Amino acid sequence: MKCIFCKRVKDSHDHLFFGCELPGKVWNRMKNLVKLNTAPNCWSEILDFMLRRPINKSIWSILQRLVIGASIYYIWQERNLRLFQGKVRSIDEICYMIQDVVRLRILGLNITDSDQVLEAAKVWDFHVEREKVIVLLPFGLVLGISVAIILLGLWTGGSFLTRLMLMVWNLMIRDGPRSVMIMPARNRG
Ligand SMILES: [Zn+2]
Predict the structure, then answer these.
(1) How far apart are the CA of 102 and the centre of ligand 1, in A?
(2) 164-188 burial string, b = 16+ CB within 10 Å, else e?
(3) Distance from residue 56's CA to the centre of ligand 1 (Å)
(4) What SS3 class is residue 143?
(5) How remote is the CA of residue 113 from the centroid of ligand 1, in Å?
(6) What are the protein's UniProt keywords (predicted)?
(7) What is the pTM of this model?
(8) Helices 43-51 and 59-80 sit at what angle, rounded to 10 degrees?
């Protein structure tokens, strides 16, 4: 059976992923969005390439694995749509569906905060939200500190009291630098 996309070459896995022109264009566009510019275009070589890379929880590693999975799924789906239902979608439409499903999968993930996350958020159009970490001090300690502050404040005048109150407030509630929550971009309906 001939390939449904180019109708020239025998239908095979290596040709479909991503030797043929249309799947190759989809793959090339998607791999550039997840910093896989140097990845090969042949299925078996992509597997080798990915196995040699560290699998970790960094945002780009997660995006890369999602994009590979989604690219294969939607190209296989497109092949079957054309073959069995006679429907045709454009490269733009296929890429849009891949991007959308990948974006949906990463929403709600809790990941380590880094410059990479902010960079990925720009490319992939999502928003990151820092979680507030509230440090609760024991009641007795808070009471002791408050009494000391008031006494010191009365002794030295108002401005010292204000500065100390701000310092205690900063101690109790601060931005947590450890993790961020991925949220839908605000400008997306
Ligand atoms: Zn082909």
Answers:
(1) 25
(2) beeeeeeeeeeeeeeebebeeeeee
(3) 34
(4) helix
(5) 42
(6) Membrane, Nucleotidyltransferase, RNA-directed DNA polymerase, Transferase, Transmembrane, Transmembrane helix
(7) 0.71
(8) 160
Contact criterion met (CB below 8 Å) for 30 and 95: yes
**Run of H or E residues at 161:** helix 158-172
Distance, CA 43 to ligand 1 centroid (Å)? 14
Any idea which residue has 């043929």 for tokens?
20
Residue with tokens 């905060």: 113
- Report DSSP state, residue 2: B
Q: Tokens 């079957």 belong to which residue?
A: 80
Each residue's pLDDT tens digit, 104-148: 888 878 777 788 888 998 899 888 877 655 556 667 777 787 787
Q: Do 180 and 118 touch, CB atoms closer than 8 A? A: no
Sign, CA torsion 41/45/51/53 = negative
- 158 vs 121: CA distance, rounded Å: 45
CA–centroid distance, 76 to ligand 1, in Å, is 12
Which tens digit of pLDDT belongs to each residue from 52-97? Answer: 888 777 899 999 999 999 999 999 999 999 999 999 999 999 999 9
- Residues with C-beta atoms within 5 A of ion ligand 1: 3, 5-6, 9, 20
Residues 16 and 75: beta-carbon distance below 8 Å: yes
